[in-house]
Task: structure prediction
Amino acid sequence: MDMVKREHGLIERTLVGGFLALLTGLGMLSTAMAEEARPPSLPPVILTLPGRPIESADKALTEAIRDSIQAPKPSAAQEWVLQPDGSMRNTRTGLAMVIRNTCAPGDLDHEFALAAYRQAQAGKSRRR
Result:
């Protein structure tokens, strides 16, 4: 009887060992297939920077000029904004300009200049 038990024990051990070897082989095979199926990882960005083509300064300048030309420019009248104190400020340059009449109303020089201006304006409207 001891012999029968030993034979069963030996057969069972052999079967269990074979089964474990089969499971180990299948596990290794599935791991290898999973590694092959995974897409290759990309290299770090720091390593790809030197490989990029360098844009020439001439090309960058040309593109910047082209962009500035294509942008619509405001008219000269739109660049000047009337301020509350009567002065005008240029929105593009920030330059402020104040034009004041130094002649007091009723002054003869002022009245003659105003009359000459009105006469010139009337002459322009008649010519048209």
